[in-house]
Amino acid sequence: MKIIKAYKYRLDVTPEQHERLMQLCGTCRFVWNKALSICNEKWKSGEKIPSSYTMHKWLPIWKKEEETSFLAQGNAVALQQKLNDLGAAWGKHFDDLAKLKAGKMKEVKFEKPCFKQRNKDSHNSIRIMQFSKYCRIENRRVKLPSKLGWVRFRKSQEICGEIKNCTITRKSGHWFISFQTEQERLDPVHPSEKIVGLDMGVKKFVTLSTGEQYKPLNSYRKHEKKLASEQRKLSRKVKFSENWKKQKRRINRIHSKIANCRSDYLHRASYEISKNHAIIVIEDLKVSNMSKSAKGNAENQGKNVKAKSGLNKSILDQGWYEFRRQLEYKQAWRGGEVIAVNPAYTSRTCPEESCRYESKENRPNQETFRCVKCGYENNADIVGALNVLSIWELGHSLSACGEGSLESSEKQEPRRNRKRVAA
């Protein structure tokens, strides 16, 4: 099987290379904005949005015009890739509109493409295709085209596979390079035979059906006061002045630190869980719905707005969706599997197979579970993880034995090769 894997490193650029990279990013950003303005005009007039192939034909014309002749100093491949990105963005938007019209979606996920701004780090990037033709790597240096020459990078790990392209981005005052590689691997077989259920939470980041728990990092909460203080300083400065720009960079560094700490924690936790379990059963949580504002509007005022706002902040601080994404691709690399099940009533249903009584009275508080019918007691988060695992096992039994009653499926179910991990 072929897999696509990226390796990201920090670049150590010289002042001259920094200026050149900023110039290349500026030309890509200008091409995006100019092409987008033309697309918007066609959209308003009812014409069809041109494809990325058609947009490529605009580049030679722009380079010959006096006002946009500076585009000739940019990287032609990077400019074409930026137009490809614009075409893909329009494509995703139209796909969502079609699904919305067909009733398959409730709201548009990918909005219409917007203009890129210079003062945003996410808008400073270039992509170079055909890496073997235009670039090469020697030890801890990479040779880049467009008069960049040899650039040092912090090679923290070896690059495996054939490099197809590289992307250079700027974030929080630093330059980074990502090498996208293609690797040929045999179909992986997970070394473990264990199955585990996961319960996501705010007090406990994740709880396993084995009883193991991971405490939340709460990266944003730890830096919240410092961030608020720096933002108040920013509000008292003249916008776009030199002092305002310096203060803006300080705030960006705090945001970057929060994101880096969260990302590091999620990678460590997902690596450990993925390494030890072949099948991971998780809750199919709709994070965007769970973290919606309770403020309401002028006619229908919301209830418990302050409490819900704090809960939303805690939910988004955990990074549940990113954690699930990391588990999925790491399990695919190892030959494992991630299965999402409906999380309804998992925290208030008795996990005992002979009981399975569901009632909100079973959970008198946030941490305690006590079944009012059979008297079973345990931590509420562990009970949730056990129920998540039980939901998958029930569905697995029914699919293995065909439709029928639960009793018949339990009798006819073949012995599984994998081990159930439970408390």
Automatic annotation (TrEMBL):
Domain Probable transposase IS891/IS1136/IS1341: 178-293
Keywords: DNA recombination, DNA-binding, Metal-binding, Transposition, Zinc
Record-level GO BP terms: DNA recombination; transposition
InterPro entries (UniProt xref): Cas12f1-like_TNB (IPR010095), RNA-guided_DNA_endo/Transpos (IPR051399), Transposase (IPR001959), Transposase_put_HTH (IPR021027)
Location of the Transposase putative helix-turn-helix domain: 1-48
Residue ranges of every copy of the Cas12f1-like TNB domain listed in the record: 320-388
Record has Cell membrane as a keyword: no
Annotated segments matching region Disordered: 402-423
GO molecular function: DNA binding; metal ion binding
Superkingdom of this protein's organism: Bacteria
Family: In the C-terminal section; belongs to the transposase 35 family.
Protein's recorded name: Transposase
